[in-house]
Amino acid sequence: MLTGKKIVLGITGSIAAYKAAYLCRALIKKGAEVQVVITPAGKEFITPVTLSALTQKPVVSEFFTANDGSWHSHVDLGLWADLMLIVPATASTIGKMANGIADNMLVTTYLSMKAPVFVAPAMDLDMYAHPSTQQNLEKLKSFGNQIIEPTVGPLASNLEGKGRMEEPDRIVEVLEAFFEKKGELISKKILITAGPTYEKIDPVRYISNYSSGKMGFALAEECASRGADVFLISGPVQLQTVHPHIQRINVESAEEMYRAALDYFPKMDLAILCAAVADYKPVHCAERKIKREAGENLTLELVPNPDIAAALGNNKTDRQRVVGFALETDDEIAHASEKLQKKKLDFIVLNSLREPGAGFQGDTNKITIINSKGMIKNFPLKSKKAVAADIMDTLRNEGYAY
Ligand code: CTP
């Protein structure tokens, strides 16, 4: 998986920098070409001589080489690389990356980087836990960078906690998995619905639900990172997409979502219906704001919205697959299995509101995947990003959509 891959390895000033030498060797053994870019502080922890001997390339650290004035182009490095890896990443470098403080060769290279970026933080537990570091890491994630989480263990400070850099062998595994999955959905077109819908009552009010859209957006990023062209039909949410291969179609009501989904579906290989579509809408949307009549009840008459999942399930061809979600509060497996059949889905992803950490708004989810062949697979509580990867891995492993 790493053969011929061009990797820019950024090294910063942490005691864990000594592990970068081992990482260099492991990447090169796997066939990668490694170009080291090191910060001035990084050189205090590991010598460029060691790194250039391992990589067989001069280490880049300054903008110019002092003896002959030759210019090191961060722009060229940004175009050359298949991937940039920052190992170890200190709180300071993470802060500079998050805020565009390009005062060294490593951060300028990062800002010019066209390839995916992976960051493995290494620091003391209190520095890692500090809201400043956490906010900067969140910012990097929002730029589409992958954070290789530090582990819990003994630290250089003699304290114990979260902040220990992930081991080089594990980092190599993460990169191998990344390159393995990167191309698996190339030329596939995937439709994803996400978020809630708004059903208007009058010009200032609507009926909706608590859906944040996070699960659907995580799926969109996951599919795009595996090479798919993603068409994300989203209800009103406060989220942004990162990957350039996600085309976002914003809608408000279930009716609009239904029309957009039916429009796009004929060209799709797979549809994943993650949206929490409002099942009903008011018969009429009042033209003017409905006034409060003191002491009187207000009755709204609601009519059913179209069922997008059922429409796509009924329209799908032999080469198309449809995946639905089911959020249940009781008798979960039975209700989800019934929806799978009724809507002619290939897969249904069940989450139960009874499970702590599952469902709306949060960053985690706990799912069970049921397929039309009778498979029932339970997964532990994970981040929505990891859940998205599990869903796509299960589809592949079960022979769907590939
Ligand atoms: N769904 C849809 N269009 C609708 C309602 C639901 O596409 N009008 C999709 C959801 O995106 C989800 C699946 O159908 O993938 C199941 O949604 P859910 O709300 O759990 O099921 P409903 O059929 O609405 O049943 P109920 O609300 O009664 O549980």
What's the arrangement of secondary structure elements?
Elements: E1 6-11, H1 18-29, E2 33-38, H2 48-55, H3 74-80, E3 83-89, H4 91-99, H5 105-112, E4 117-121, H6 125-129, H7 131-142, E5 146-147, E6 151-154, E7 160-164, H8 168-182, E8 189-194, E9 199-202, E10 205-207, H9 214-225, E11 229-234, E12 246-250, H10 254-264, E13 270-273, E14 280-282, E15 302-304, H11 308-315, E16 321-328, H12 332-342, E17 347-352, E18 364-365, E19 367-371, E20 376-378, E21 382-383, H13 384-397
Parallel strand pairs: 1-2, 1-3, 3-4, 4-5, 8-11, 8-13, 11-12, 13-16, 16-17
Antiparallel strand pairs: 6-7, 9-10, 14-15, 17-19, 18-21, 19-20
Cytidine-5'-triphosphate binds next to helix 11 and strand 16.
Could you characterize the architecture of this molecule?
This protein is of the alpha/beta class. It has 13 helices and 21 strands. A hairpin with a 4-residue loop joins strand 19 (367-371) and strand 20 (376-378). Helix 1 runs parallel beside helix 2 and helix 3 packs across helix 5. The longest helix has 15 residues, at 168-182. The protein is elongated. The two termini are 20 Å apart. The protein binds cytidine-5'-triphosphate. The site of cytidine-5'-triphosphate (CTP) has 15 residues, from helix 11 and strand 16.
